[in-house]
């Protein structure tokens, strides 16, 4: 199968070399890789240039944006610019972070999943991060059917159906909800262990703490589901303050009348799906 990768990169000199080396080692190479140098002030561009010399699959796109590492809008904006740089001749598209190391057979297995199961719209593996003892341990606080935003692969039909990625916090949740709305499934493979070199959320600033709640509002969760989701998040992350942060963010978004990421019809489906999953877990 033919696939493209878009890698947004903002000041990634510490990790980018390892990420691109793991891309070059793939048993099934991508047809093209667009490296979006997003306003970097370190040696990110020099590293990109080195890999462009190594292989013709790499292309560079320099772009300007904020210096802040804000979750959601910055990275998706860079991804969209990179995607616009490509043609439409692909079977699946990958949004890849610049701080991961992939297993050598990662995309061969992703291609196998998409080819063998046309109903799958989003596929990926699992994040492993180093603990205090240097051991690579699973870090997946979400549902096992969720693919982390660091390495999302979309079939062309799914990506077109959901209308691309939303340029906002919550983009890597609403994409899966919209995929379900359009009849696609999410597939995660336990054997695809991706090493994440930067601790999750490690680059986010203090402004980001309210964005999760705002995302819940814009995804039309409603207050009840947002509260339940926040309690679950607080328990898993062992951060009680997350409940208050999320609810404050939700109410702020409601007060400011933030634009929704989904239509009323999609929102109704999302709420029904969320309640179904909550009831399943309570019964189970």
UniProtKB/TrEMBL annotation:
Record's keyword terms, sorted: Glycosyltransferase, Transferase
Gene3D superfamilies per the UniProt record, alphabetical: Spore Coat Polysaccharide Biosynthesis Protein SpsA, Chain A
Organism domain of life: Bacteria
Domain Glycosyltransferase 2-like: 5-145
UniProt xrefs under SUPFAM superfamilies: Nucleotide-diphospho-sugar transferases (SSF53448)
GO MF assignments: glycosyltransferase activity
InterPro entries: Glyco_trans_2-like (IPR001173), Nucleotide-diphossugar_trans (IPR029044)
Membership in a protein family: Belongs to the glycosyltransferase 2 family.
UniProt protein name: Glycosyltransferase family 2 protein
Source organism (scientific name): Euzebyella marina
